[in-house]
Amino acid sequence: MKLADFKRSLARPEPPEGLDPAMLALWWAHKGAWDRAHDVVMEDQGTEAAWVHAYLHRVEGDLTNAQYWYRQAHKPVETGSLHAEWDAIAAALLESDQPE
């Protein structure tokens, strides 16, 4: 899936089939369903989910918790806009899912 397709899916009431947990959480986060997004990443132990988890705690305003999750994701702590971070995470995760 391309980023533009993923963004278009946000107009639908339900996420596309087959999204991995990190992308599913991003989808719900964009829809304003923070609790639902958080529940999804809490069930996944991977670094991609940890990155989204960090983003979610930034959205929440819990920067200490966000810092912990950035470390788990092996990512630097983000300080830019939440919108830009959402776009960067989505683009990176979608790129990593592309066959080589």
Question: Explain this structure to me?
Answer:
There is one protein chain. The protein is mainly α and 100 residues long. It has one domain: Serine Threonine Protein Phosphatase 5, Tetratricopeptide repeat. Helix content is 66%, strand content 0%. The protein has six helices and no strands. α3 packs antiparallel against α4, α4 packs antiparallel against α5 and α4 runs antiparallel to α6. The longest helix is centred in the last third of the chain and has 15 residues. It is globular and about 35 Å long.
Question: What are the key terms here?
Answer:
mainly alpha; Serine Threonine Protein Phosphatase 5, Tetratricopeptide repeat; 6 helices; 100 residues
